[in-house]
Design goal:
Strand content: 25-35%
Number of helices: 10
CATH topology: Rossmann fold
Largest sheet: 12 strands, mixed
Structural class: alpha/beta
Radius of gyration: 19 Å
Helix content: 25-40%
Order of helices and strands: EHEHEHEHEHEHEHEEHEEEHH
Distance between the termini: 31 Å
Length: about 300
């Protein structure tokens, strides 16, 4: 089924070339159904790349998905053209009277800074508080997950001795069935690229939280509240096949001492094309979130949303 995005969004052409069903505004208006309304707070510096990655995965949904983008007004993005932001993005003040079925808060390259030192931290906290009453289910990704767990539950992040960099095997929690991982293999792979971590010992201290998935190598991966209104993912299932390669090449060009991403290049040889081990699970992850945590649960009238 289609994902509805604004006319002329750069991601549209890329997705159409990949045979992804994209519905533009003018066609969507003629359909007499209520689409799922999804808000994306894009904190990544390469916003156009991140838009394409997320829209590709959201397109694998049972219903029409209507996407809005916002960025933080308290920090001016330096890597995205201003005309792109003006044309396709809004600020929080422009959407805060609306309600959404789902929301995605992306990662950001600020993980080694204390949360309170991030320029847009007060605005992000306001948005996360607002999401509790105006969004049914919010998915937090990588630093966005660390920020959400810290803001909502006081869970800290910890510096790693070395960057967690590569594609790592994960397993599901077997204490209870997990809808988010319905249909997953017993072992599945997720890309990670981060210098900090959250720890299971801190998650276990919070009775409102549930550990959904972890890795013996990369640690905690997926956490949620008991109703799935807040979901936290420490990895990057949305990454393209070449994203880790681009990050590795960038760091090498900067003269940084960085290890080759694990389980990514055949024989750990960066001269070889990387192998994609996470594509099918990434599509299934986003489809499960949209179906079981958004579409099946959200009220038809979004005005009736209440905080649990």
């Amino acid at each position: 089924m289609p994902i509805k995005i604004p006319d002329h969004l750069p991601a549209a052409g890329i997705l159409e070339q990949e045979n992804v069903f994209v519905m533009h505004d003018n066609r969507a208006y003629s359909q007499d159904i209520r689409p799922l309304r999804i808000l994306i707070l894009n904190l990544m510096p390469t916003k156009i790349v991140t838009e394409t990655q997320l829209l590709r995965l959201l397109s694998n949904s049972p219903l029409q998905v209507d996407v809005d983008f916002i960025y933080t007004a308290s920090y001016n993005p330096r890597n995205t053209p201003l005309d792109h932001l003006v044309k396709f993005y809004e600020t929080f003040d422009q959407v805060k009277e609306k309600r959404y079925d789902g929301m995605i808060i992306t990662g950001a390259p600020v993980e080694q800074m204390p949360f309170e030192d991030v320029a847009y931290w007060p605005e992000l906290c306001e948005i996360m508080e607002w999401s509790k009453t105006h969004v049914y289910s919010t998915m937090h990704i990588c630093w966005g997950a660390q920020a959400g767990l810290y803001h909502h539950y006081g869970i800290p992040k910890y510096d790693l001795d070395a960057k967690m960099f590569g594609v790592f095997p994960h397993f599901r929690s077997y204490t209870r069935p997990v809808k988010l991982f319905r249909g997953f293999d017993d072992i599945f792979y997720v890309p990670h690229s981060r210098h900090t971590e959250i720890r299971r010992s801190d998650i276990d201290k919070v009775p409102q939280l549930r550990l959904l998935s972890e890795s013996e190598i990369s640690g905690v991966y997926a956490v949620s509240d008991m109703k799935g209104r807040q979901i936290f993912l420490t990895g990057h299932s949305e990454y393209d096949p070449l994203t880790l390669k681009h990050e590795y090449d960038r760091d090498i060009e900067r003269g940084l001492d960085v290890d080759v991403p694990q389980n990514y290049f055949p024989n750990d040889n960066p001269q070889q094309p990387p192998q994609v081990l996470w594509r099918s699970s990434a599509y299934l992850l986003f489809a499960n979130w949209l179906n079981y945590y958004v579409y099946q649960e959200t009220p038809f009238d979004l005005a009736s949303l209440q905080q649990d």
